[in-house]
Amino acid sequence: MSQFVASFADVMGDACDEAEHVMAESAEVQRDWAERVSRFRSDSKVHDALRVLAEQPVVTARYLQQALAVSGVTARKVVNNLVDVQVLEPSGGRFRRSEVYQAPALLRMMDRLIPGIQPTALPKPRPAK
Q1: What are phi and psi of 56, to 5 degrees?
Q2: How many CB atoms lie within 10 A of CB 93?
Q3: Rounded CA gap, 51 and 58, in Å?
Q4: Cα angle: 14, vertex 111, 62; to 5 degrees
Q5: Largest interatomic CA distance in the chain
Q6: How far apart are CA 20 and CA 27, in angstroms?
Q7: Nearest to 26 by CA among 98, 109, 118, 101
Q8: Highest mean pLDDT among 1-10, 14-23, 49-58, 108-117
């Protein structure tokens, strides 16, 4: 029984170490985003959108419209601003017609967290119109 407890304690210790690493890396991504959007007014919905992206790194303007409780025009401006500062990029591939946007820094971080899984091949961004 003591061997099981020791093994379980080791696994729990590793999990705690990994959780600390994830928290630190996530905080770094969020600091980078905050720096990128620092040029926008403090009451801009761009800042609120960062909190949404932290939990949902793939969005549409319509999703942000609902999540931020703003008009469609405001949601589109938020998306455009986040694309301009390279927090979001247009998604390609099968989503080409859906106007889906992704937060690549967060998606790549999430890919690195799952050992043994090949990273997601993020679609190449569509050229700007």
Answers
A1: -140, 90
A2: 11
A3: 13
A4: 125
A5: 64
A6: 11
A7: 109
A8: 49-58
| Structure-block tokens of residue 79 | 């998306």
pTM: 0.73
20-59 as b/e: b if 16+ CB within 10 A? eeeeebeeebbeebeebbeeeeeeebbbbbbebbeeebeb
Tokens 């790549």 sit on residue:
108
- C-alpha 40/C-alpha 56 separation (Å) is 22
Tally Cβ neighbours within 10 Å of residue 78. 25
Tokens of 78: 């938020």
Residue 65: what residue type? Q
pLDDT (0 to 100) of residue 127: 52
Torsion of CA 57, 115, 112, 68, to 10 degrees: 20
> So what's the pLDDT on residue 102?
93
Which tokens in the block code for residue 36?
């990128």
The per-residue pLDDT for 15 is: 84
Residue pair 82/90 in contact by the 8 Å Cβ criterion: no
